[in-house]
Every structure is written in C-alpha cells, then in structure tokens.
Amino acid sequence: MRHPRRLARLGAAASAALALSVLPSSSTSASFSPCGGYFCAWVDAQGVGYVYAHNSGDPDLTNDPRPGCQQSTWNDCFSSIQSRQSPGPYNPDFLAWVGTYNGGGQYLCVPLSGLFPDLNAVSRDSAHSWNDAISSIQANAGSC
Q1: Number of domain units in the chain
Q2: Could you give the dihedral angle defined by the CA atoms of residues 46, 22, 97 and 50, in that order, rounded to the nearest 10 degrees?
C-alpha cells in the first residue's frame, strides 16, 4: 500500500513490505516557534521548545549536541516535526529513521509541507509512538 502524501513503513531491505498510513496535520499552529531549515523538529509537542533545523539530513543525531535532551544530543529528542518548502527547485520529502543511524529499519515519511505537531499521537507499532524515537533523518529525492 502506498499513499503519495503520508506513509510510515518498515524500510529495511530484508524486511517484508509492511505499511502503515500516517496522516500529518494539515493545519499549522501559531504556537510553533520559528525554524530556519527545510526539516524542522522541536523538543516539545506543538512546536515548542528548542528547535532543530536542517536542510539536507543527518545520518547520526548522536553527533549533534543538545543540552536539555535526555542524552544531551538530538538523538531520540524530537516531539514534533515539519518539512517546509525550500525557495529553490529541490524540495525533498524527509525520512525520519527510528533507532538506527545512516537509515535502515523503520522510518516515518515526512512529506513536503507535512506537519506532525505531536509525535506521541503517531504510532509506529502497537506499543510505541514516534515521540523521542528518531535517530537519523534523510532527504528523499523522490516522493515517499
């Protein structure tokens, strides 16, 4: 199953194609703090708190310091995320990977202009949400 705008799925090469559709919010919130990147993430839900901004991706969030997060890095620290329109011709979707570095395993597709204001509300399996679970991000040249 593939949906052009929203998709979370198991993405490892050896994994079966198990897909779960995820619906990002279509509205923006006035409470979201400013973000200067094309991929934005916040420590708290609803775009509150420290903001992470990146334009291309980051294969290992353990290399990005963030005092105030549990591990003092951005690893497993995102509670809300957004993909924004770039001013240029390159407008990728982003893949947010859980628990792995350099991709691999389960990922959440963050489509262009996609907004997930509360990752606690986005399930990745029957027992876990995407809140505080992202370890790497990747710009995706195609539509995920």
Answers
A1: 1
A2: 0
The answer to whether 11 and 106 are in contact (CB under 8 A) is: yes
**Does a structural domain hold residue 110?**
yes
Dump pLDDT digits (tens) for 39-87: 899 999 999 989 998 888 899 999 889 888 888 999 999 999 998 876 6
Report d(CA 104, CA 85) in Å as an integer. Answer: 26
Domain hosting 104: range is 8-14+35-140
CATH number at residue 123: 2.60.20.10
